[in-house]
Fold this protein.
Amino acid sequence: MDNRHGIMLIDRGSKDVDVKHELYELCRLVKDRGNYYYATYSFLEVTEPSIEHGIKECKDSGVEFLTIVPYFLYPGLKMKLAVCKSARVAREMGLRFVITSSLNYHDMLIQLVRLRVSEAKSAHNITDEDDKCDLLLIGHGSSDINARKTFESIAYALRSYYKSVNICFLELDRPNIKEGIMLSSKGSSTLIIMPYFLHNGTHMKHDVKNEINDALSYANLRCNIVIARHLGVSSILADLIIARAREVESIIARASSKHKG
């Protein structure tokens, strides 16, 4: 690949300053761990930096080849819009590029969830082994069936580590958070609730938090309840982004090598 090889994450978009801080830190990790010349992020909607701004920033910074990463957990409609728009803009700006898949299912996501669970147990002095704990994953929810299937695949892979693993959704799908907590807490001594969200944005700070609090006050549960943090910034997540990038970059590298040969 080119020495001036850049990488750009495309997020859905948020005005929350913590989201932008997380993306900045993640780009820094990806740049260092992936040995990229330049790394930045952009937003599909809501606020700046836009996709146009991000790609122009890369080009103005001397990037000659750009890897574009749709920074989405699932292959839904917004991810497809991000792919189409970024491809169009990069072509219009005359920049060579490749586009990766979204994060989707990957063993590194399983590793990261387990890390977040361990952190939560340690913070709350929970000594129960993982296989004695019940885990509830909270997803955003989507009308796209592929998003649900991907989320279910994550839950299925985690079931070999915990007593039980269930899923629920903030919106657009069922069970909702209250239903998920009621179901998961039956017969549980320790229930770990993990918001399966990339950022600590508005959904995390308000919507998910309020839904969990309402459900817990309604249910009057007697088991230990532990709430883990979201996926957030992690070297594991940075390595997953790099892995997705290498999948497509290696194809271009092989094609270039054959052409030169």
